[in-house]
Amino acid sequence: MSPKLPLNNSQTITDYLKLQKSKMSESNSADSYKFAFEDEAFLARPETLGVRFQLELLKPEILLHERGIDHTITVFGSTRFVSHATAKAMVEQAKTSAEVSEAERALLHSQYYDSAREFGALVAHYNATQAEAANKLHIATGGGPGVMEAANRGAFEAGDKTIGFNVSLPREQIPNPYISEGLSFRFHYFALRKMHFMLRARAIVAYPGGFGSIDELFEVLTLVQTKKVMRLPIILVGGQFWTEIIDFQKMLEHGVIEQADVDLIRVVETATEAWDVIRNWYQLG
Questions:
Q1: Maximum C-alpha span of the chain
Q2: In the prediction, which pLDDT does 17 show?
Q3: All residues at 6 or more sequence positions from 35 whose CB lies less than 8 Å from its CB, including other chains
Q4: Which pTM does this prediction carry?
Q5: Torsion of CA 197, 201, 203, 206, to 10 degrees
Q6: 32 with 26: CB under 8 angstroms?
Q7: 281, 231 in Cβ contact below 8 A?
Q8: How far apart, in whole angstroms, are the C-alpha atoms of residue 70 and residue 112?
Q9: What pLDDT digit, counting tens, does each position of 144-194 carry?
Q10: Which of 29, 119, 166, 202 could bridge across to 143 with cysteines, CB 3.0–4.6 Å?
């Protein structure tokens, strides 16, 4: 019996675009005569993977540079949190026990949405005091709902530029409406999206979240620990959540990390405390 090993373990761009194998070859002169950069099927071939990587890196890099975005604060957090006002309406409308339970959880977690919104506004208010673009810090998120929406929203409502790095998902993620015109980017590859989270990041602010948020957090911690990037503020908002989910002290006791690694992290409870850590770190005044 032949082993049934897959050719690859990823959803390729060909799969995502739903291109049939018959569309993946230049079967006639009309196809072969196309400019390579105009030929979607050619660009989706396995052999052009490196080119697609380069393009996903280059496009946001150029556009952010053109708009004077030199420094960002990257905000992570759950897609599932809603504002206090939305959660309160859910409680009022809940009828079944399942709806009541969901609404109560939403109300509990709404504190993080509102905090992220406040944090975005604090950063935007600082930027308003700066005459030079090179001195400003802009909110950057994954561009989706929940905490990402909240942080973008706080900055956007305060009149600041705000950035979203969206990614294609099986359940398509739509960019939230609080990303500035021309600063909403779409990625297919998580790796390239993560690079843009970090390239301009001067601080990381992580609110409670699931697999994605924790994955992004640990990637940042690893980059700093291994000195692939310069040390920067890594701030966890919501001490009770983080201490319940991740026991850094146990990791320390087991000897898999050192005290210096634990010291990379600051745990705070409020948006103001998170901003104070960044303001003091860079002596922003």
A1: 70
A2: 72
A3: none
A4: 0.90
A5: -10
A6: yes
A7: no
A8: 27
A9: 999 999 999 999 999 999 999 999 887 767 899 999 999 999 999 999 999
A10: 166
